[in-house]
Amino acid sequence: MRDAVIVEAVRSPIGRRKGGLAEVHPVDLSATVLTALLDRAGVDAASVDDVVWGCVGQVGEQAGNIARNAVLAAGWPESVPGTTIERQCGSSQQALHFAAAGVIAGQYDIVVAGGVESMTRIPMGSARRVGLGDPNSEAIRRRYDGIEFNQGRGAEILADRYELSRGWLDEYSLRSHQRAAAAVDEGRFAGEIVPVTLPDGTKLDADEGIRRTTTLEKLAQLEPAFGEDGRITAGNASQISDGAAALLVMSGDRARDLGLTPLARVHTATVVGDDPVAMLAGPIPATARVLERAGLTLDDIGAFEVNEAFASVVGAWLRATGAPEARVNALGGAIALGHPLGGSGARLATTLVHHLRAEGVRYGLQTMCEGGGMANATIFENLAVTV
């Protein structure tokens, strides 16, 4: 039976909104990680069967099939195609699922999966503001009694449902920054980050969102973002960011033919739908389903990446699953590093497969909530760990 392995995974630094990557066109940012990916692997671009790329805001500079434009900007042969997909925040995790499925089905031998989002240049929600109507039809409004789908409201619902106090949310968020800072100091991201050359010739080679000097006192001073009595603030939510990431996927046989050692195998992948009003609870059933399909238990998983869209998402997931927090987002998450929507799934996967290799951990699980009440979940296996 064919399998799908990841032989290389890279990402850009994650830039703050209006930060170092603000002047970099998202096509060029994508091309930067594509170029580095194949350079590091030593693979000829002409051998790539497809590029499957996630992007949420597919308007303006991110319109027109950014995957294909990135291939051309990278200088790859015109024979290399590309397609752009959108599953909200899980777009590039879904890109990886499609890429792995294509390899296992025999449609691809070598494929690149990844994604990008320049939230500075294409602000969140831009696709809804082009004056062409509301994507929520009358039938949807009738089904949900006119309730507005809102991620902030979903985050508050989870905080209520799982009795997550403002103090817990802020404490978790502080740990995210502390863990990310420690990871930087220990050089844990060095093997995955690709420096980006900026228009002025300087290079950005480090994540910009980590706040080393934040404290619980500072976090407690922030006003609620979604109502006076709310618990969600800018400090316990993910940061608006710019970034891109890419993974090189191929069959195990092709990797052996090329003399490449896989970072990990895509063991099991799934996606679920869930309540679109609460919206952000999907990682809970997604985790249960992917473990069941893999024939594994929570105890088998040595490392988890649960996207920190909001601290309440991770808190709800922890309380529902009973997973040990020490294994979750060990290097920090989107609260500290940032959440460049269409690039985040690939960023999490990149960090996770490098973490598995560095720590000698066999199985890692990644999951993330998505707009509309969906969630992807993926289990990776470090083949270097013997039973």
Automatic annotation (TrEMBL):
InterPro entries: Thiolase, Thiolase-like, Thiolase_C, Thiolase_CS, Thiolase_N
Keyword tags: Acyltransferase, Transferase
Residues the record marks as active site: 89 (acyl-thioester intermediate), 339 (proton acceptor), 369 (proton acceptor)
Any one Pfam family match given in the protein's UniProt record, by short name: Thiolase_C
Residue span(s) of domain Thiolase C-terminal: 260-381
MF terms (GO), sorted A to Z: acetyl-CoA C-acyltransferase activity
Tree of life domain: Bacteria
Thiolase N-terminal domain mapped to chain residues: 5-252
NCBIfam families: AcCoA-C-Actrans
Family named by the database record: Belongs to the thiolase-like superfamily. Thiolase family.
Protein name in UniProt: Acetyl-CoA acyltransferase
